[in-house]
Amino acid sequence: MSSESLMDHPAFARTPPWVKAKLRPFAIEKIKQVYEWVETECIPAERIFKAQIKDNRWKNPPIIHELRQKAKAQGLFNLFLPNHFKESPGLTNLEYSCCAEIMGKVYWAPQTMNCHAPETGNIELLAKYCSPEQKKKWLEPLMNGEMSSAYSMTEPDVASSDATNIACSMKITDTEVIINGRKLYANCQYNEDLNIYILMGCSDPENPNPWNRHTTIVVPARTPGLKQVRNLTIMGFDCAPEGHGEYIYDNVRVPKENIILGPGRAFEIAQGRLGPGRIHHCMRLIGQAERAYELALVRCIEPRKKPRGKLIGQFDSNIERIADMRMTIDSMRLVVLNAADTMDYAGNKAGKYAIAQSKILVPNALLKVIDEAMQMYGGQGLTQHTPLPEIWTYARFVRVADGPDAAHRHQVGRDQMKTAQGVRTRFEEYTRKYQELCKKWELEPEEFWGIV
Amino acid sequence: MSSESLMDHPAFARTPPWVKAKLRPFAIEKIKQVYEWVETECIPAERIFKAQIKDNRWKNPPIIHELRQKAKAQGLFNLFLPNHFKESPGLTNLEYSCCAEIMGKVYWAPQTMNCHAPETGNIELLAKYCSPEQKKKWLEPLMNGEMSSAYSMTEPDVASSDATNIACSMKITDTEVIINGRKLYANCQYNEDLNIYILMGCSDPENPNPWNRHTTIVVPARTPGLKQVRNLTIMGFDCAPEGHGEYIYDNVRVPKENIILGPGRAFEIAQGRLGPGRIHHCMRLIGQAERAYELALVRCIEPRKKPRGKLIGQFDSNIERIADMRMTIDSMRLVVLNAADTMDYAGNKAGKYAIAQSKILVPNALLKVIDEAMQMYGGQGLTQHTPLPEIWTYARFVRVADGPDAAHRHQVGRDQMKTAQGVRTRFEEYTRKYQELCKKWELEPEEFWGIV
Amino acid sequence: MSSESLMDHPAFARTPPWVKAKLRPFAIEKIKQVYEWVETECIPAERIFKAQIKDNRWKNPPIIHELRQKAKAQGLFNLFLPNHFKESPGLTNLEYSCCAEIMGKVYWAPQTMNCHAPETGNIELLAKYCSPEQKKKWLEPLMNGEMSSAYSMTEPDVASSDATNIACSMKITDTEVIINGRKLYANCQYNEDLNIYILMGCSDPENPNPWNRHTTIVVPARTPGLKQVRNLTIMGFDCAPEGHGEYIYDNVRVPKENIILGPGRAFEIAQGRLGPGRIHHCMRLIGQAERAYELALVRCIEPRKKPRGKLIGQFDSNIERIADMRMTIDSMRLVVLNAADTMDYAGNKAGKYAIAQSKILVPNALLKVIDEAMQMYGGQGLTQHTPLPEIWTYARFVRVADGPDAAHRHQVGRDQMKTAQGVRTRFEEYTRKYQELCKKWELEPEEFWGIV
Amino acid sequence: MSSESLMDHPAFARTPPWVKAKLRPFAIEKIKQVYEWVETECIPAERIFKAQIKDNRWKNPPIIHELRQKAKAQGLFNLFLPNHFKESPGLTNLEYSCCAEIMGKVYWAPQTMNCHAPETGNIELLAKYCSPEQKKKWLEPLMNGEMSSAYSMTEPDVASSDATNIACSMKITDTEVIINGRKLYANCQYNEDLNIYILMGCSDPENPNPWNRHTTIVVPARTPGLKQVRNLTIMGFDCAPEGHGEYIYDNVRVPKENIILGPGRAFEIAQGRLGPGRIHHCMRLIGQAERAYELALVRCIEPRKKPRGKLIGQFDSNIERIADMRMTIDSMRLVVLNAADTMDYAGNKAGKYAIAQSKILVPNALLKVIDEAMQMYGGQGLTQHTPLPEIWTYARFVRVADGPDAAHRHQVGRDQMKTAQGVRTRFEEYTRKYQELCKKWELEPEEFWGIV
C-alpha cells in the first residue's frame, strides 16, 4: 500500500507533497490519531470547557483532567519531544509539526496531549540539561502528566527582550539560593495544579562576561515569599485557568540542588531552549488560522445572511478574500514546516534563522487572515458567537511571546549585514570581468557613480 | 485679542489652522473646558472607574453618577447636538468634533457629558422626528441625563447590514404594537439605568415598496416579554456596565403612541440618523489614538527599558514608527474634520460621502497606529498595564459598528460608478480634439486599441 | 451671487467646503481658467507632444513654445508664486494648490504656465534672496519665460540627503568662483533652452560650523568645464526634453557676483527653498492620481471588456477598489491642502511638519491608487496605451525627490521625540491625581509595573 | 561523499534542506554549472548586452549569439523541459527551479540557455501535442536554438483573460486557414530571429460548446498579411530586442497542416500549457529579487554614503528592512519550490492550485522587496545606475502576464467555495456532539444565533 493512499485522509488535506514523502508510517498513524482526537474529543467540547470554568476560573476543569487521562492512555502524550531524545515517543520535528497544526485548532487541545506551552519548552530543557536525579524529580512527573510547570524570565523593570538585562537577584549560599525580584508573565500560581517555576535570574552581576552572570533554577510554586500580585490579561482575556501572572520574589529560598546545569549557565540553557519550543506556537497557529478560515467559508454559504439578495460567498470580493486567506495560510505553513525540517536536518542551531523567520512572518500574516474572517461575520464577528476573537488574540500574543518581533527582526538583519562584505567583493569581481569584456568587444567601459 | 492667542492652549495643539479659523470664541471656551474636564476629572479616574465596577459589572459606578452631575452643572451636557436644533447648546459639527476628540481620550468620558453612543444618535433622532408629547416623555429626560436609551436594529437571522432585510415582526393594532423577534447588540437591559430601546422592526412585510415596510418605536426597557439572553462580549470585553445584549422579543406589547413619525417610516428616520451620529465614533477615535500615541512616546523615553543599552526611542526604527503614527493620526483627523465641516456647510445628505470616507478610513488607519503602540510595549503591551488593548478593541469595533466597512465601501463605489459615463464622454471629447490637433500639426493620429 | 454658485463648475467638483469658503472671486476665476486650459489645450495634446519629441528628444517641441506664449498672454504664468512676494500674480498657497492639482493632470501642463519644477522653487529662491541686479538678470527673464533654470544639489560621492555632506568644491577668489566636483540630477544641459544651474557647493570646508561651509551660486549652463556625462533615466524613462543629468564640474569658472546672498549662506537659502516648492510635486500628484482614477472608471464601463460576461465595473471587487481609490485620493488632497493653508496662515517654517507629512504620505498612498488603475487594465495597463506608467513613475520619483522619504520621516520622528518628556510629566501628574482620587473613594492604588 | 558536502557551494546557499535532499548528483552538477555560467558569463556582461543593442534595438546582439553557442556546447540548453518528456535533458521541475532562480539573476541569461519565455512554454506545448512531422519542423529547430517562437493569445477587443472570449477569426478551408483579427503582446516581428507565432483563434464561433470553438495554429512570422503595428512598451521599457507587439492579421493564409492537435482543440492545448511554463517567471523572479537584495546589502556598507555620520547599514531601520527583504524572498522561494515539487509528484493538473498560489503571491511580495532596494539607493535608485528599475518592471509585468492576478485569485476562490458545504456538514456534526456532551456533563446547551 503506497504512502499516498495511507494519506488519503483529511488530516493530510493540505500537507505539501514533500512533507508527505517524509512521513514514516508510524508518524502517519500518529497524525491520524491526533486528527481524530481533536475532531471528536476537542472541537465539540469547546463550550463544555468554557462552561466548566465559568465560575471557577483558576482550576483546571474536569473535562481537561478526563481528556488528559484518555489521551495518555492512547499514546498521545509528549509527541513534541524530538526523536533524538531518549525520552521521545519518536516523532521528528517535521512529523510533530503536522500534529501540532491539528492540535492548534482548539486552544487547550495541546494540553490534553501534554504538548502545551510552556510545558513543551520546559520538558525539552529538563531533558537536555538535568542530572538524573533532577530528571526523576521533575522531568518524569511532567512527562507523565502528574506535574505542571511554568517558565519565568520577563521582568517589568528592565528590557528583558535583551536577556543580559535580567536583574532578578539570586544569592547563592552553600546550601540554598535566595531570590529577590519581580517577574512578569509565567503561568498562574492561582492554579493549584501548577507545581514549579523554571526561573532565570542574575546570580553573579559583577562577572565581567555578561553571558556568565545568570542562573536557571527550579522554584516550587508554593515556596514562601513567592507571591502572585495579579493575573495579567491578554487583550482583556484572563486566559484562565492557566493565565499569566505578575510575581514578587521576596527572599524566596530554594535548595541549591535545584540549579540546572550549574550557576552562571543560564545562557547556555536559554540557547538550548531556543529550538523547537520556539515555533510550537507557530505550528499551532496554522491550525488556528485554518479554523478561522473554515468559519469564514461557512459564513460564505450561510443561508440566513443574504445582503442585497446574494449569499456572502457569491460576492466576488469575498471570493477574492477567501483565496487570499487560503494562499496566505498555505504559504505560512510552508515556512513553519521548512523550519521544522531544517532543525531535523541540521540541528537547532543551524535552524536559528528559519525559526526566526517563522516567529516573525507567521503571526503577522495570520493575524490578517483571522481579522478578515472576523470582518466577514460583521457585527457578530467580534462577539463570543465564534472563537475568532480568541484565535486573533492568540496570534497577536505570539508577536510578543519570546520577545517582540522587532527584536527577532534585528537579529536576522544583523546576521545578514555580516554577509554584505562578501557580496561587495563579488560585485567588484563582476566589474573587473566587465572591463575585460569591454576590451574583447571593443567598448568603452561605463562608470556608474557611487555604484561598485 | 486674536483668535490665535485665544488658542494658545494644549487643547488646540494639533488643530489645523483652517479649523482654528472657524472656531467661534464661544466654542473655543467650550473646547478648553472639555479639555480641562477630561485631563483633570477623567484620565486620572480611569482606574477608579475600573475598581468600582470590578465586582458589580452591570451598574453605573458612583464616579459616573458624580461626574455626570458635575459636568451638567458646568454646562458640558449634550454638546454634540448640532446648532440647527433648537435644543442645541450651540456648537457646529466642526466645533463639536474638537470636543469629541478630547472626550474620546477616555472611553467613558463622553458619558459624563451625555455625549456617548448611542445616546447622541438617539437624541438627534428624537429631536428630529418626535411629536411634542414624545419629546416631553423621552427627549427631555434623555437630555437632562435622567434617562438612558439604547438603539436596536441588528438581527441574528438576516443580513441586517442591508436594512431592508430586517424581519423582527411588529403587529400594529388599534392601540398597541405587538413585537416578536430576535435582536443583537443594543445596550444591556441588565443595567438598571437603561430606560428605553429605540427599535426598528417590520410592520408591513407585504408592502410592495420595501422602503415602506418598517417602523421605529420606543420600547420601555422593562416591558414584559423583552428578555436579554446574554451579554455580547467584544473581543472578550464585556463592555460593562453598558454592554451589548442579545434579545428575544416575545409578544412584547407597546402602546401605539410610542411609534415615531408613523408606521412604515423607519427608513425616513434611519436616513436622518445617518448624520453626525455616524462619525462621533471616528471623532472620539482620534482622541483614543492620540492616547495610544502618547503612551508610545512615553515608552520611548522609559529609563528602565534599554535594550542593547539604548532607550527605545533612540532606535531609529522607532523614530520612524513614531513619525508614521503621528502623520497617520493627523491625516485621519483631517478626514473627520472635513466630514464634520461638510455637514455644517451642506447638510447631512451632502455629507454622506465624507461620512462614509471617515467611517471606512479612520478606524482602519488608526488600528495600525494603536497596534504599533502596543507592540512598542512588548510583552506588557497586551496586558491591562496600559489602556491600549481597550483602545484597540474600540477601534476594531468601529469597523463593524453601523455595518461592516465593506458595506460602506460598496455604497461609495456604486455611487462613483454612476459617474463613469460622464468621464467617458469627456474622454471621447479629448480624442476628438486630438484628431483636430493632428491635422493642425500634420501628424497621423494614433489609435490605442481598446482605449477611448 | 453666492460663492457657492460661482463654484458650480467641474473645477471644484472635489474641492472640500472649507477650501471653497476661502477662495476669493479672483482665485475662483483663475482656477476655472486653469481648468479650461488643461482640459482643452493640454490633455488632448498629450500625444502631439509625444509625437513632436519622438525623434528629437532634447529640444522643447513646438507645441510647448506655442502654448507657453498663449498661456502667458492669458495671464496664466507664475501662479505658484505666493502672494506675499511683490512679483506674485496674487494667489495664496491654498488657492494655487487648486490650480496645481489641475495642472498636474498632464505632466508638462505646468510648464505651459511656467509653474514646473524646478522653475518654481528656483524663482521663489531668487525672488527671496537675490539683489536687484541679480533679479534683473535671472528672476525677470525666468518669470517672463525667456530663460530656463535647473537646480543642482545631489552628489554621487556622498550622502547628500544630509546636505552638510555636500562636497563639490568652490574656491572663491577675488573675482570668481572655481568649481570642481560631480553632481547628479538637475535638468539636462542637452536641452538648449536651459540657461542656468543654481548650484550648491562647499566653499569653506574647514569652517567649524558645518552650516556655514556651503555657498549657492548661479552657473550659466554652457560655462566651459561643465559637462553632462549622460542623461539619467527614471525607471527607464528619459524624461525628455528636460531630463536629468550627471555632471562633471572641471575647473568651471563663474563670476563672483553670481553668488546668491553671500558665501557660506547656502543653508539659509536651502531653508528658504523648503517652502511651497517642496509640495508642488504633491499638489500635482493629486491631479495625476485623479487622471489614473478616471482611466480606471472608464475601464470599468468599457463595453469590449466583459470577463465572464460582466463589465469590469460590475464585479463588486472592482466596486470596492474604485471606492478605495476615490477615498485615498480625497484624503491625500486634504493633507496637501492643509499644508498649503498652514503655510498661508503661519509661514513656511511653521508649515515644516505639514510639508513633510505631505511629502511622505501623498506619493506612497497615491502609488497604490495608480498601481491599482494599471492592474485594472490587465495586460494593457503597463503599455503606452495609457499614461498610467508615466503617472506611476512620476509618483515614484516624488518618493526620492528632495531626499528619500525615510530622511523626512526621521526628521519628523526626531522632532516628535522632543515632546516625549512633556507628555511623561503630564502622565506623572495623572498618577498623582489618581492617588488622590483613591483616597477620596477609599481604594487601594494599583501600581502597574514599568508604566508611569 | 555525502550529498551535503556536494552542495557546499554558493549555488545552494539558500536552498532549503528538503530540496537539497531531493537533488540528484546529476542535477547538483547542472545547478553548479548554471551558477558558474551566470556568475562568470552573464552578470559581468550585462552592460555589454546593453551597449550592443543601444543603436540596434531589434536585433539579437552578438553576445547573445556567442553565449547561446557556448551554452549549448556545455549542455546547458533546454534544462526546463521536465524529465517525463523524451526530449528532456533530464531534470525534474524541482531541480530546474534551482537552475531557473540562478538564471533569473540576469534578464537575458535564460535565453543563453534556451530557457526563456515564451520559448519554454512553446517547446513544452509542441513536445506534448505535435505530430512527428510537426515536431521535426518546429520542435527540433527550437530545441536546437535554430529557430525562435512567440505565443499570441491576448486581444485588444475582448477580455481575453477569459479565453472563451477570444475572437480572432480563423476560417478553415480544405487546405488552409485564413486568419483575420487583432492581437496584443507576443514577441516582436521586428526581430528577424523570430520565426513563428503560435496563435490561438476562433475557428468555430457557433459551436454550442464554448470550449470547442478555438484552434491553435503555427503562423510563420513573415506570412503576408501579418503586420506589427507598433512595439508595446512595458512601463516605458521597449524590452528590446525581443519586445512585445501589436498585430493585425489581415487575411493571413497558413497551411492547414500547421494546426496543432486539430481544429477546435485549443483549450485542450491551453490546459496543457498551464503547467511549469506558468511559474518559470516566478522561479526567475526569485533570482531577480536576490539580485535586488544583494544590491541593497552592498549599499548598506557603501563607504561613501554616510548620512548623519553612519553607514546606511548601521541604521537599525535598515537592519530591519534587510531582515524583511531576506525573509520575504525566502518564503516566496518556498512557495515556488513547493509548486514545482507538487507538479513532479502529482502532475500539472494536481499542481494547479500551487501554480496559481505562486503566480499570485510571488510577484506581489517581491515587488515590495525590490521597491525597498530602490528606495535604499535614494535618488540613484530609480536611474540606470543599477538594474533595479528593470528588475522591478519585470516583477510588475508578471502580475499581468498570463492574466491579471485578480483572475487567478478568482479561480482559486471559486474552487475553495466548493469546499464550503463539506465544512458546514462537519460543523453540524460538531454541534451534534456538543449536545451529547452537554448531556454527559449536565449542562444546558448554548445556542449562538446565526452560527452553525
From TrEMBL, chains A, B, C, D:
A Gene Ontology BP annotation from the UniProt entry: fatty acid beta-oxidation using acyl-CoA dehydrogenase
Cellular component terms per the entry's GO annotation: cytoplasm
Reported cofactor(s): FAD
Spans traversing the lipid bilayer: none
Record domain Acyl-CoA dehydrogenase/oxidase C-terminal: where: 267-414
Keyword Repressor found: no
Keywords assigned by UniProt, alphabetized: FAD, Flavoprotein, Oxidoreductase
Gene3D superfamilies linked to this entry: Acyl-CoA dehydrogenase/oxidase, N-terminal domain, Butyryl-CoA Dehydrogenase, subunit A, domain 2, Butyryl-CoA Dehydrogenase, subunit A, domain 3
Domain spans labelled Acyl-CoA dehydrogenase/oxidase N-terminal: 33-146
Highest rank taxon of the organism: Eukaryota
Gene Ontology molecular-function annotations: acyl-CoA dehydrogenase activity; flavin adenine dinucleotide binding
Pfam families: Acyl-CoA_dh_1, Acyl-CoA_dh_N
InterPro entries per the UniProt record, alphabetical: Acyl-CoA_dehydrogenase, Acyl-CoA_Oxase/DH_mid-dom_sf, AcylCo_DH-like_C, AcylCo_DH/oxidase_C, AcylCoA_DH/ox_N, AcylCoA_DH/ox_N_sf, AcylCoA_DH/oxidase_NM_dom_sf
Family: Belongs to the acyl-CoA dehydrogenase family.
Name of protein: Acyl-CoA dehydrogenase family member 11
Organism per entry: Mytilinidion resinicola
Phylogenetic lineage: Eukaryota, Fungi, Dikarya, Ascomycota, Pezizomycotina
